[in-house]
Amino acid sequence: MAEEVRVVTKRMREHTEDSWTLQRVLDTGGYDGARKAVVEMAPEELGGEVKSSGLRGRGGAGFPTGVKWSFVPADVSPKYVVVNHDEGEPGTFKDRELGERDPHQLLEGMIIAARAVGANKAFIYCRGEFALGSRRLDQAIRDAYGAGFLGEGIFGSDFDFDIVLHRGAGAYICGEESALLDSLEGFRGQPRLRPPFPAVKGLYGQPTVINNTETLSTLPHLILNGSEWFRQWGTEKSPGTKIFSVSGHVNRPANYEVPLGTSLADLLELAGGMQNGKEPKAIIPGGASAPLLTSTDVALDFESLQEAGSMLGSGGVVFMDETTCMVRNTLVTTEFFEHESCGKCTPCREGTWWAVKVLERIEHGDGRQEDMDLLLDICNGMDGRSFCPLGDAASWALRSGVKTFRDEFEQHVAEGSCPFGGGERVHVGARVGATGLGEAGITSQPAAGIDADSEPEAAQP
Amino acid sequence: MSDGKVTLTINGHDVEAEENRLLIDVAEELGVYVPRFCYHPGMKSVAVCRMCLVKVEGSRKLLPACATPVTDGMVVDTVDEEAVDAQEGMLEFLLINHPLDCPICDRAGECPLQDQTYKHGPGSSRYIEPKRTYEKALEISDLVVLDRERCVLCWRCVRFSEEIAGDAFIQLIDRGAGTQVLTFKDDPFDSYFSGNTIQICPVGALLSKPYRFVSRPWDLTSAPSVCSYCAVGCPLTNEARAEKVVRCQALPNENVNDFWVCDKGRFGYHYVSSEERLASPLVRTDADEFEATSWGRALDVVTGRLRTARRIGIIAGAHLTTEDAYAVSKLAKKTLRTSDVDSRLQDAGAPYERAAALSGVAGSTATLNDLESARTIVWVGPDPKEVLPVLYLRLRKSVLEEGAKLIVVSPRRISLDAIATHVIRCDVGGEAEAVDGLTWGFDTAVAGDVGDPLVVCWGPSSPGRDEGPIVDAVVALARNKNAKLLVCPPHAGSQGMIDMGVHPSLDPGYTPSDSRGKDTRGILQAAAAGELDILLLIGADPVADFPDGGLVARAFGSGVFTVAVELFPTESVAHADVVFPSAAYAEREGTFTNLERRIQKLEPLTAPPGSASEPWRICSRIAHGLGDDWGWAGFNDVWTEIRATVPTHAHVDLTWAGQESRPLSLHYESPFQPDPTHGRSVSAGPGAGYPKGHRSGAPFHTGQNWPLSWELRGFEARQRPGIIPSRPPEPPAGDDPVSPAPAPGAPAGDDAALRLIPRTDTPAGGDASLRSGTPLSSAFASEASPSSAKGWSRTGGEDGDSPEVKAGKSGVPERSGESSPAATWHSVEDEFPSFSEGRRSFVLYTGRLLYDEGAMVSKTVALKSLARRPFVELNEEDAKELGLSEGDEALVGGNGVRATLEVRLGDIARGAVFIPYDQPGWRANSIIRGVNPVVEVRHP
Ligand SMILES: Cc1cc2nc3c(=O)[nH]c(=O)nc-3n(C[C@H](O)[C@H](O)[C@H](O)COP(=O)(O)O)c2cc1C
Ligand code: SF4
Ligand code: SF4
Ligand code: SF4
Ligand code: FES
């Protein structure tokens, strides 16, 4: 029987009623890691510990965190730490839960990161739709100031540290780190040309460390217990535990924390197996950007998934059973990317627009035999040629849909309709109408969700 | 490699290039053109169109050549299968939503998208869905039309507006496939530089309103030229269809304008083909009417007069070419033996000759490129954005890109304030003191930023005031700090005029004249006093330009025999007895000398109307008629003589290679090019090169800074005694600043194309009417309260007909004739001891705005409507004391003339008002009397 290993999710799972309050946090060892980092350890030691732990970023790219920090020049100030709490990857909802249920753990991680790179100010870029999460974070920041964990001379040291909470305005691209910085600075959220990389020239042109919420939330435990302890889980190249957001046709969709390297089959088992005892037909292993898998016989770590032709990404795992129309799935995913394309570069802007049109035709029975190759050509036009990874990712998802389920596509074309009975048009999220049709076309996201004050029924395993 | 050079291979060719240059440029110089849309050498790379992807060995992905610096050992293949696939794919993407507008698009025939589609694109489209549509052809300003459907979202226009012009009126809105270029609601594309976006737009998305549907590019003939407006001298191409100039575009020149021109230069060509141009000589008949006549007869009349005339005055305009200037100078000083010749009208108070105290050169010792290498730039002058727009861009670049520190000395807020390190807000006339402060380091905070290399810029700012003390202070600063000086005269021909000795005390090459002649003011005063036999106006319009409307009116009122050489029947022409039609800049060969002494060439494109001719030819014909045969048949003869007789210009070489094969090329090859100190060689850094296939493809160097003395071995002008005035020149003989003067002659209405001013006209008085039709009912004094009336109240009943003034108790001297002492700076308090009784009298600080009522702008349909109505700008505190607020109307008066102007509150020194010099409806020179004018402002 597969089991969770709860490190980052420990407090929230054990104290579901008040894991976000300062009192509970203090009762459960909170801020010990941060205190140790500030009071007992030298910044270089912190960096060294994180480097030797082999911790890799949990935001999607899996870049080794300690290495990233080491790019930050020592002799330039001010420096900044920015938390990427914009979690927008479809199928991923772990950062949301971390922000809502254990905001202090994140603050603690930020203190450690800031101390390590010598930053005195940090920003949390919080996805606009996270209403509850942003309130909890806000409260946590206030409480931490009150307790002397933030502000001047924290933990009685000479280290000053401030945190600013910033809410985004609803764009997936603002999760891309350089677009995030532009957005944070008040500009149109679009990726920046690199180099220079944020570690050298980031927020306001200053060296900036950008890390994902989960990455930072891991730090208190890592610092408190050491890198050897951390490496007891996972593989050589993917050490530690990782939260996977499981959804789709499973019995218990939720976030599960397991050691990296756990098999997909075990994760499915943790989530209660497929609904109605069916078999998974397609699996997205790492958020919508990740190419589809058809088998659960793969280990969930960075290397294995890459070998399997997909990626670990953000850890959003979606299981789909045989009732799923894969044309429609590809359409929905591609529509997402088309909707979220920032429009800066040609291939992503035009390629996603075009692909959606073609997919819509196929799904609605107007497909042509040559459309599948056309879609693959569109993928080639975007892949590796876009300005930022969004365009690449759009092509991966699309290509894997067409390639893996080409027979389903061809069936749509041959039958002139969707064999799954998909008649009505599908739209991602709250989007209405077709994009890009000038004034009439784009309707902004309805406010619903942005400030809706509902605490989600976080599925408890 | 240690010498900053790297070696790489592009398509199998080994190339050496400077480190850090962009691959796209290095390839282009090798003759390998990488297709592109977003890259523009004048702006930073953004790498968004993805058209320039190339294969670089060792890189998994294709790399954008426009954002990839060359490195040592790099192996590049731009025609690799994968790269070509990417380029073709990108074109296909760009075309899916591109309308098939070529048959109705102005760009067709010179469109990079069209060209690249021919070269790299697919024959037909695989896109079968409906295209993205937008409302077509939005007029986003009075000059620019936007068609969003054609836009390829290359960001060039947006980047230009933000990065280069600094006024981000045009932006990208929305996202994804809905991204579009647009202006903000109710906020038109109101930029002085908007036309550049049309030129750099790689498709027909941004269009010139005046040129729209006018011509196909293949029907155009073109010729290189130079802008005829301001002293920056931006190189241009003029393009004509059916003998009519219909378009004008920037020619890139890294040394002058980079890639840009201002909208005045770009759209200001209509005047050339205006119906109102003078086309034949005119003489005034006995019946006081103009009659078209032959050149022979008109010349006879003029030479007949000249033969007997003893007292001759010549005023030339600063829009003439260097050759014209030489001819005017020669006509005056050699043939007619008079030094009563000047070219300064709006800048009448600007003693350029005093700049020679620094180096022997009555002009700049700095070049525009020096601004970019300067550590500190000091600006003392008008708002460059209004009068020398592209200089403003160069200054902006120097500060924002090159990190120069900028110190601005100005009595009022100007565009440069926004980017300045220090702004010194002084009183009007207090500039000199402020500059002295820099020289002696009084303000340590500011002085600490006065670094080396230092460039000190000065340009005359407020027409009508004496700039002498400012020039002296500026020269002292430059000398003290071993700085270079950038002298910024206003007009395209200004510097050429000074160089060629159209100046009362300087002969060609700055040799002091044997006898000091009369300057413009002196000539007009002589005319007014009946002491002038003949007045020659060569491209000069004192009625519009000279900053003392009353004096001009008296000068013409005296009935002096006047000969005018002009483009248009201006208000000054209306006073003339003989008129010769002049050829315009697009109709002639010639050169302009810009503010950094760069000599650039104009090529003729269209034929002048009728028998209009170049001013130098007219001068030479007059001289010939007087028995002095100069033997000039053409442009080259003039230059042969200039080289032979003007020591500073002895080495100017006007041969340029390959004219035929490269119609747009303009190389002045000389021993001094490329100039190691001034020129940047073409291969110096990103920015060189220009998209081939673009119509503006042109070399980077046009013109030549004629060499400074010390740069020229064997040329010892600098050491020659006498070139540096040993004592400051006497101040220009000035009108008594407080002497009364009648208002200028009633200016002709808009409809009066060529209104003769009857000989019997007396100088019109205060009842002159505004051109707008607003009656100028009376002198201010008649309504003014006693306390305010002192200084300029007049005795006598009717306005304007009693040129006597009661001296105030200030002790201002009674009017003592035209030879009153020099203008000195007098504060308002001196003249108006009743100051405390209400702040009503102000020092007038005026200046031109870009779009004004100048003859050329106002005859240009596209720009005419852009000129703003006149206004008066006041300090907020002053306005409060007067009970005036923004948008109110105020009465402004001076010189027995008054007008109702809109109030604007501004950051201007207290006690001063700013009034634009020449806006439609009203000319500020009508209220200017004497030097350093004072005006009165009150609540209506
Ligand atoms: C289109 C796009 C969207 C992204 N969205 C997120 C996101 O929502 N949250 C996140 O942490 N990282 C996101 N990333 C990854 C970030 O760019 C960045 O790699 C990450 O925040 C770094 O943090 P880490 O090293 O801790 O993972 C996104 C990347 C791309 C290209
Ligand atoms: S790939 Fe291009 S258009 Fe797409 S999000 Fe990135 S920069 Fe924007
Ligand atoms: S309007 Fe022209 S210059 Fe501007 S983004 Fe579109 S194509 Fe480029
Ligand atoms: S800046 Fe001056 S020279 Fe250049 S285009 Fe404008 S007016 Fe002409
Ligand atoms: S990406 Fe290089 S020219 Fe556009």
What does this structure look like?
The complex is a heterodimer of chains A (461) and B (940). Chain A is an alpha/beta fold and 461 residues long. Chain A has helices at 10-14, 22-27, 32-40, 43-53, 65-70, 94-101, 103-117, 131-146, 177-184, 213-225, 227-230, 264-270, 302-307, 326-340, 346-363, 371-382, 389-404, 406-415, 438-441; strands spanning 80-85, 121-126, 162-167, 208-212, 241-248, 254-259, 280-284, 316-321. In chain A, the strands form 2 sheets. Chain A has a 4-stranded parallel sheet with strand order 3-2-1-4, with helices on both faces. Chain A is globular and about 75 Å long. The two termini of chain A are 14 Å apart. The model of chain A is unreliable at 426-461 (pLDDT under 50). In chain B, helix 7 crosses helix 20 (615-625) and helix 8 (322-335) packs parallel to helix 20. Chain B starts with a strand and ends with a strand. The A-B interface holds A 171, 173, 188, 193, 338-347, 349-354, 357-358, 361, 374, 377, 380-381, 384-387, 435-439, 441-442 and B 45-51, 53, 60-62, 67, 85-86, 89-90, 92-94, 96-97, 126-127, 129, 132-135, 148, 152-153, 172, 174-180. The complex binds flavin mononucleotide, iron/sulfur cluster (3 copies) and FE2/S2 (inorganic) cluster. The site of FE2/S2 (inorganic) cluster has 12 residues of chain B, from loops.
